[in-house]
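Hi Y.,

Following your request, here is the sequence exactly as I used it, all 394 residues.
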Amino acid sequence: MADFRVPLMRNAFACEDETRKALSEFVIQTPRFSMDRECFAFEEEFARFQGRAHAILFNSGSSANLALLQALRNIGLLQDGSKIAFTAVTWATNVMPIIQLGMQPVPIDCDVSSLNVEPAQIMERLAQTEIDAFFATNVLGLLGDLPTIRALCKDRGILLIEDNCESLGSEIDGVKAGNFGLAATFSFYIAHHMTTIEGGMVCTDDEDLANMLRMVRVNGWDRNLSAPAKEKIRAKHNVRSDLDASFAFYDLGFNLRPTEITGFLGRNQLKYVPQSIAARERNFLQVQAAVGANPDLIPLSFGHQSVVSSFSMPVICRTQEGRARLSERLREAGIEHRPVIAGNIQRQPFYAKYVNQTYPLEGADQIHDCGLYFGNYPELTIEDIALMVQCLGR
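Below is the corresponding structure, written out as tokens. Let me know if you'd prefer a different format.
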């Protein structure tokens, strides 16, 4: 990070010094590091923040994606061969579990101005193939028309789930992203809206799904279920004693457990999230004003959002040559930047290796070829923003 005047991230934590001191004291004093009270307390606090009945903590956002799809298979909402549509501009570990669990990935194109799937793109894909589920990625704090997508999925019998790893706190008409589908995943990796170093979460209001997620997290055990839920599953499988239950594995799972450090940091950092969201939105709006003033750049569409909890500063140029010029300008100014996540996922090597069918994805291709992003975080200074704005000038 020292090589850049404006890096993608400046601090690991909100209130960096205080957090590191508190973490050091916790490590010295805690009697237990494996998943325990801190993790469970963080789950309760995050569920309240998100406005969901259940929050299940994992060791990463990628693990949360994997666990969610496995849990949906375990309870019968998805099956081997199910067609899982997904946002074509996404992260690799949103798509990899679809392939790894024996289901069929079906990419849906993105609107260039919102970076997200819109209802029209879903209808276009439905004209070509049936879809069992749609795994929507809410891209970089921006949202598609999720209320209409939710209604469309309900009408068509399509299971809607959300990857909200990049959009914690974004809202449409006061409804938080991550609350439109049956369940949503979140990431607490470094440089996200809040961090536990590594860590992820699944939120849902569905109790059966929540209990299955708790079992998937720990190899299919029932150890983290409530007493009534334990009694129910043990009776179903004729497990007669606590001794026998200690090594009873009820369904397919993994070891995706977080540590108490994850739980402690989550509780510590969650209280700073509202201030972080406000700062990120303020920064984003200033930069987007500069984008709108440059005809070589495509203005982003976010007027339908009541909150834009910006993960980063995405910029879509009208041409590849324009992106090359902007990238060079950012490099010379010392502003670290990246492509727009994984771009068109069909163009990733793993996808070409494992998936035979591809679709034309014009919007995803333009985002892939002409898009980039640079950092957005509360520590950006007035001078940092001014430098970004200068680079975005024509």
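The chain has two domains: 16-270, 273-391.

Thanks again,
Q.
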